Amino acid sequence: MPERRGPAGRRLVVLVLWLGLLASVLPWWLETPTGSLRGTDDVLIAAGRITGLVAGYVLLVQLLLMSRLRLLERWIGTEQLARWHRDIGATLVIAVLAHTALILVGYAGLERQSLFGEIRVLLGYEHMVGAFAAAGIMVALGLLGIRAVRAALPYELWYYLHLSSYAVLVLGFGHQFTHGQQLFRPGPVRTGWLALYVVVLVALVWGRVVTPLAFNLRHRLRVADVVAESPDVFSIYLTGRRLDRLDVLGGQFFRWRFLARRCWWQSHPFSLSAAGNGRWLRVTVKVVGSHTADLRELNPGTRVWAVGPAGTFTAAHRRRPRALLIAGGSGIAPIRALLEEMPPGAALIYRARTPADVLLQRELDWLAEARGTQIWYVVGGRDDPAPRQALSARGLTRLVPDVARRDVYLCGPPGLLGAVTVALRRAGVPRRQIHQATFEL
Ligand SMILES: Cc1cc2nc3c(=O)[nH]c(=O)nc-3n(C[C@H](O)[C@H](O)[C@H](O)COP(=O)(O)OP(=O)(O)OC[C@H]3O[C@@H](n4cnc5c(N)ncnc54)[C@H](O)[C@@H]3O)c2cc1C
Known about the structure:
- 53% of the residues lie in helices and 15% in strands.
- It has 3 domains: 6-215, Four Helix Bundle (Hemerythrin (Met), subunit A) (Up-down Bundle); 220-310, Translation factors (Elongation Factor Tu (Ef-tu), domain 3); 315-437, Rossmann fold (3-Layer(aba) Sandwich).
- 34% of the residues are buried.
- The radius of gyration is 26 Å and the shape is elongated.
- The strands form 3 sheets. The protein has a 5-stranded parallel sheet, with helices on both faces. Strands 1-2-5 form a 3-stranded antiparallel sheet, with no helix packed on it.
- The chain has 16 helices and 11 strands.
- By secondary structure, it is an alpha/beta fold.
- It has helices spanning 6-31, 40-65, 70-76, 78-110, 115-123, 128-145, 147-152, 155-162, 165-179, 188-219, 290-295, 332-341, 361-371, 385-390, 393-399, 414-426, and strands at 222-230, 233-239, 253-258, 268-271, 281-286, 304-310, 323-328, 347-352, 374-379, 407-411, 434-437.
- The structure holds flavin-adenine dinucleotide.
- Flavin-adenine dinucleotide is lined by residues 155, 253, 267-271, 283-286, 288-292, 330, 333, 439-441.
């Protein structure tokens, strides 16, 4: 089982990122004695420079977080990286806007120009058209990051628009190194920044191109079969070469690109619904939109391009010897795989609306017997009081009296996850022992 770097690795990465920020603004601090700021315009320009350095650095961090480097994904977790990326995104947009506004107003004051006049002057300099374009794209990306805007757009459209952040890197690069007060002169500061660019580019190429290419050339995955599990859920079985050498854990997911008509241009995340067994892989998919509906029609033999494995929702990230697994609906997929790798004595609570919605029941019962796992099927509609009681703090403690001393793994719809997390906290389960797979990146 791969090592769990978890919190220690995460703390190390956070420390390195903060030190990086400090190192990138330090030259500004050293080169800007307080006495040199004589008027408001000087102060504005100095503030514009520091926000420019912060924006440049945060953009590189943003790209690094999304580089899909295995090391980062293993230490921090794909879901956590995506959360950081989302949270830091707002800082980046604010830094870019502040940099643009402060430099414009500062220089307009110094040169006694109107704002429009100053924009015209700046656009005349080399690389400045690109810099303005980069700022415009950044602001548009900031708007796309707003939850309501993101939810209103088809996921793929949002995703492809989001990729324009690479253009920001290219368009903004030139002006940083020709006009940036701390960067235009050859020396250690400029060299350090260039090295940072190289590190991020190498990480991107390694994580997004080299690693997936090597994985797919080695394993050459294909669809073996598509099997219905319920009216709106089906499993896709995959075969390939050297699956016995696949380094994957139950609870992890891949981004799958099925190379069939209508599907090849999209890549979607699905968790394995059975732990790696050296012979085949399986995902269990609920039809929620057009892509998942198309996948149901896949033919055996279809080639598959997979990127992964990813995710820290694994038995290796456990803190306690025993675990409680709680699944709702199609959230059983990763939980079913996880169950295979949990030590004996695990407990499973599976919430479903109707008996027909209980998926993979035969395998679950078989696994429960083989691994000494206790399973409760909690079946009933949303307004049914019995399931609600079973998943309350008191109900959970009654079913699993030592719940507070277990790791709890949760996967299911957001409403269920929220309510069960509150109940678990009330039942005394420390936050660090609660692991959630939200099916959201
Ligand atoms: C880590 C992870 C693991 C998952 N595991 C499973 C699983 O085992 N079984 C299962 O049934 N579902 C799983 N999902 C959810 C699954 O990815 C979406 O239901 C599917 O992508 C929907 O695609 P669609 O075009 O059919 O539906 P849409 O109607 O297009 O999308 C429905 C919602 O799914 C999300 N989504 C859509 N496309 C993508 C994408 N390319 N990448 C990320 N999110 C997307 C968006 O939030 C969107 O609002 C998982 C999601 C994540 C993030």
